[in-house]
Amino acid sequence: MNLNEALTILSAMITPAVLIVASGSLILTTSQRLSRSVERVRTLSDQLRKLIMHPEESNWFEDEHNILVELIHYASRRSRLLQQSLTILYITLGTFVAISITIGILEFSGMQHTWVLTLLTVLGAGFLFYASILLIVESQIAFRAVNYEMNTVLNRVKRYKKSKAD
């Protein structure tokens, strides 16, 4: 094997690197989102536990209880979706690494099984697409949760002002 052939093989093996880096970036950001979501569930659970243990400390026990339960529901759904996304992204990363390794094996062995590369590429792209859909759904849930929380606070302020006016 001469230098040109070796460079061609190395170039072909590095080509999936862009997709590997993209998958790695998505894994990192999704992992951070999951960490924040899990922390949110824990914080809300602690608030709910304190509310249940000391209902006399709240003027609006039922209201606060319902709000916390709803927010825990949103955060839990987000966490589950993020966990699924993370799993799919790890599979995607593994698939793109497998493509790189397969390119090297096929080039060195001289085999012409390009269908293997095509299959792995389609699988990797499909997994990446599926993970993207899961992340879009999770983002929509996060958006709805934030809107719910903001609307709840605004409604509470209105009720408070109304009760003070009466």
Residues in β-strands, percent? under 5%
Distance between the termini: 90 Å
Largest sheet descriptor: none
Main structural class: mainly alpha
SSE run: HHHH
Query: Radius of gyration from the CA trace?
Result: 25 Å
Pfam family, one: DUF2721
Transmembrane segments: 6-28, 87-109, 115-137
Keywords: Membrane, Transmembrane, Transmembrane helix
Protein name: DUF2721 domain-containing protein
Task: Summarize the topology.
Layout: H1 3-14, H2 17-53, H3 61-109, H4 114-165
Helix pairs in contact: 1-3, 2-3, 3-4
Describe it.
The structure is a single chain. The protein is mainly α. The chain has one domain (3-165). Helices cover 90% and strands 0% of the residues. The protein has helices at 3-14, 17-53, 61-109, 114-165. α1 runs antiparallel to α3 (61-109). The longest helix has 52 residues, at 114-165. The chain is rod-shaped and about 90 Å long. The N and C termini lie far apart (90 Å). The model has no long low-confidence stretch (mean pLDDT 91).
